[in-house]
Specification:
One of its GO terms (molecular function) is metallopeptidase activity. The chain is α/β, with parallel strands linked by helices. The chain contains 3 helices and 10 strands; from the N terminus they run βαββββαβαββββ. The chain has one domain: Cytidine Deaminase, domain 2. Bound molecules: zinc ion. The site of zinc ion has 6 residues, from loops.
């Protein structure tokens, strides 16, 4: 089990990007650092200008994400996972498609540095967020996180 820390700015940015699309999914990448004991999130991206956002999913704008990632790499922070929103009234549980996407992405990472996933939503002006980790590239588990 790894402790997950997210800085308040990144958390606020995710909230803002969720509120902007109340009826559609939005999402992006999580940037930070990790080791076998902890994960620290220092930035989150949007899905990008050419992303396709629907009620049931979001397809990221890959050229936007590539450029965004290159900028973060200059600051020595790395892609450590993804986030996406679920429009109300959907909950925060990963859908079967989410789980399959999480597993596919897990395969791209080293066993000791598997990615994490935030699923968030806004309902009645309250922002909710769950974080999931993947173990051994296949087991999805909800984790606690701390805002710092
Ligand atoms: Zn989802």
């Amino acid at each position: 089990m790894r402790n997950v820390y997210i800085d308040a700015c990144s958390f606020e940015k995710m909230k803002k990007l969720t509120i902007e699309y109340p009826h559609y999914e939005n999402g992006g990448l999580l940037f930070g650092r990790m080791n076998p004991e902890w994960i620290r999130i220092y930035d989150v991206s949007d899905a990008g200008q050419n992303a396709i956002r629907t009620k049931y999913g979001v397809t990221f704008d890959s050229s936007y994400l590539q450029q965004y990632t290159e900028e973060r790499l200059k600051e020595d922070i790395f892609v450590i996972g993804t986030w996406h929103s679920h429009p109300a009234p959907y909950g925060l549980d990963p859908s079967p498609i989410d789980i399959s996407t999480m597993r596919k992405m897990g395969k791209l990472f080293d066993e000791a540095y598997l990615p994490i996933y935030f699923i968030v939503k806004v309902e009645k002006n309250n922002f909710f967020a769950n974080v999931y980790t993947i173990e051994e590239r296949s087991v999805i588990r909800q984790e606690k996180f701390w805002m710092v």
